[in-house]
Structure formats: C-alpha cells, structure tokens
Model the fold of this input.
Amino acid sequence: MKKYFWLLFIISFLANAIEPVQLFIVQRSKNKNEVRYELRVDENCMPLGKEPVHGYWQDLEKGLNVRTEMEGLDFLAYGITYQKINGDTVKFKVKAIKDREYSVKSFKKNDSCFAEATTRIGGKNAVLKKAYIFSVEKFIKIKVKYINLEGFLPDGTIVQERINY
Done:
C-alpha cells in the first residue's frame, strides 16, 4: 500500500510541476563548468515544494546539455543553506556566497513563469544574474580570493561588486 501511495505522490508532483525558472549562475576560475540555480514552480508559477530553489552543475566541459545533480563536497560548497517560503516569495542563502541572502519572487506573464533572485549588489537591491568565484588551489586546499557579483537594477542599469577575501 505504501508503494502505491508514493507512486501516486510522485505522479501528482510531476503533474503539477512545470519547467523550472532559471535564476542565476555561478562561474568559477577552476574550469568552465557552472552552477545554475533555478526555481521549481507549479502551473500557477508559485514555488513548488518545501525546497523550491535548486542548484545543479551544468557540465560545459562534457557538453552544452550535460547536467549533473550536486552531491557530496559539491553540495557542501555550492548547496542551499536554508529556504523560507512565504506565498510567491522564497528567501534563501547559498553556501558559496554565504554573506548574502536572496529573495526570489515568482510571477506569471503571458502564460509563462518568471522569477528573479534579488540581493544587495554594490549596496543596492538588484537582480543577481551571475557570480564569478576566483580561487587558487594549494595541494588539497582551495582558497577563494574574490567573488564578483553582477546583476541589474529595476531601471536596467548593470551593477557589479567585488567581494575580496
């Protein structure tokens, strides 16, 4: 009986889910692979599930469409530390850029779902589109030297900030 319950739950979840909405990417100096963060939404463009913000690897070194789920050490470095949902808004933090909180608001426009991750960039509330992490490796230890954040303000002005470590 339990098996059928879980099967019904999964089918119902998939029936309500639509294509996730891309939020922002994290590029690294280490290689071309990117971490991409997305928001899982339902047919009304509302955040779906208890942890709707999701990160994964886009393995560009293996091919343009090669996607890998994060696990182990990768999740410890780039995973989501927490998520709080309030209606159409999700607040969350990412381990790789731990001093920032992000707020994602999802909405529907012309029968398509949209979402934007906002945070402080250069002291202003902005939509984050890309982060670049420059690090150096010494033996087995990795040291982050700086992180560049790039996004845009509500009027479309591009903003950038460098966080030095």
